[in-house]
Specification:
Number of helices: 10
Radius of gyration: 38 Å
Structural class: alpha+beta
Helix content: 40-55%
Shape: elongated
Oligomer: single chain
Number of domains: 5
Strand order of the largest sheet: 15-16-17-18
Number of strands: 20
Largest sheet: 4 strands, antiparallel
């Protein structure tokens, strides 16, 4: 394969297409080149948005991040050489092709609706309406009959058929998937069953793992059997040759160690790509995360203070974004959690705070429109006014009642005294008459 033939087909990122380039590289440079290509494919979608310098610098950051995780060390000379190869021989040709695809698709407006993809869930598979994360349909471009490119006109993003970012219509979750070609679909062996994983893990945890047999620790597979009009799912172990219904197995939660039952779904290795890219971007962008409030009495400047993950992990926390929601990522252990309800640790007293109260208020406020919020406030003001008016009226009635009771009591005391005086006078008159008679 000549260099001209390689340049004419820049979309093919298989190892054979790069054999001409890698033949002149050392073993160390080949390993580094492989790393660059892996990260290049993740970043390819932004080739029309970023300039060449921005694209290469972002790619370098991605590579440095992945090398940090796997503790690989390469010389500066090797890095500069591979960076030059990527920018001169691969990026330029891919950029020219991307510009060509964009201009042709804007003219034709051919919407993507023919090919199948690995769906996010069973409901998403039934709908069959695959859209981009911005709710816009994809435009499709076929290249050399064995390659497909998808383009989003609204976001100006272009995707290869092996890594495309979709939005699930049922769950509104962003996920990566790939196209299943019709030619290849017919050649799939019936014995090749999809691997099984949990549909929703316990403690709302995100687990990128496979279900394993509790007897032999082998991987479990998903089997679908149709019964009349219904389709039932089962878990199958190839070694034990046993079939289970998903809810028959009790799993131990990795977080709380409690037993739970769960439904099953097919394992998609690209499903967690969104989480990986979210963590990667957050650590590269380095936007420091901070809580809205802390329950402790410690006094410090929130803007200048560096917040860490927890007492056992002193990794710095950064902001990220996943499915249009704010996330908090630890630089050290790469753990991820949503900003709403995140457990913060005070850097001085190490007291933990979960921002619950404000989040609940925000959720309630989000349920009402601006007009409804205004009406709600007015109703609250009127209610408070009526309440205060009623309390004042009630207090006046109590005072008047007390005054009237006091008056009656005084009047009664005065009448009693008058009656006593009259009785005394009568008694004195009787005694005086007695003395006169004598």
């Amino acid at each position: 394969m000549s260099e001209k033939e390689f340049i004419s087909n820049p979309s093919d990122n298989s190892s054979n297409s790069y054999s001409l380039i890698t033949s002149s590289l050392t073993l160390e440079e080949k390993k580094l080149f492989k790393k660059y290509i892996e990260e290049y494919n993740d970043l390819y979608q932004k080739i029309l948005i970023l300039s060449q310098n921005e694209f290469i610098s972002k790619l370098t950051q991605y590579v440095e991040y992945s090398l940090r995780l796997k503790c690989y060390k390469f010389s500066l000379k090797s890095k500069e050489k591979i960076k030059e190869i990527i920018s001169d021989k691969i990026y330029k040709n891919d950029y020219i092709l991307a510009q060509k695809i964009k201009t042709e698709l804007i003219k034709e407006k051919k919407i993507f609706n023919e090919e199948e993809i690995l769906p996010h869930c069973d409901k998403d598979k039934k709908s069959g309406n695959y859209i981009h994360t911005c709710d816009n349909p994809f435009l499709v471009y076929k290249y050399n009959d064995n390659k497909i490119f998808l383009f989003c006109e609204k976001c100006n993003l272009i995707y290869k058929d092996s890594l495309i970012k979709f939005k699930c219509n049922e769950t509104n979750i962003d996920f990566y998937s790939k196209i299943i070609f019709k030619d290849n679909k017919n050649n799939i062996n019936e014995d090749e069953l999809p691997l099984a994983t949990w549909s929703k893990y316990h403690c709302n945890a995100v687990i990128n793992d496979l279900m394993k047999c509790q007897k032999c620790s082998n991987k479990l597979y998903l089997v679908k059997k149709s019964y009349k009009k219904y389709e039932k799912k089962y878990i199958f172990c190839k070694k034990c040759k046993k079939l289970w219904y998903p809810t028959q197995i009790n799993w131990e939660c990795l977080i709380c160690k409690k037993l739970f039952t769960c439904d099953v779904k097919a394992y998609n290795p690209l499903e967690f790509k969104t989480i990986k890219i979210c963590i990667k971007d957050a650590i590269i962008n380095k936007i420091r995360a901070k809580p809205k409030y802390l329950e402790c009495d410690c006094k410090f400047n929130f803007d200048e203070t560096i917040f860490f993950h927890k007492n056992s992990c002193k990794g710095e926390l950064f902001f990220g974004e996943l499915n249009s929601k704010k996330t908090v990522i630890c630089e050290k252990c790469d753990s991820i959690g949503f900003y709403d309800g995140y457990v913060w640790t005070c850097p001085l007293c190490l007291k933990k705070t979960k921002n619950k109260k404000e989040n609940k208020e925000n959720e309630e406020n989000n349920k009402f429109s601006d007009k409804e919020k205004k009406d709600k406030k007015e109703a609250e003001i009127i209610q408070e006014y009526l309440k205060s008016k009623y309390e004042k009226k009630k207090s006046k009635e109590i005072i008047n009642k007390n005054e009237s009771e006091e008056e009656t009591r005084i009047k009664g005391y005065a009448n009693n005294n008058q009656n006593k005086d009259k009785d005394k006078e009568k008694k004195n008159d009787k005694e005086a008459k007695k003395y006169k008679n004598i």
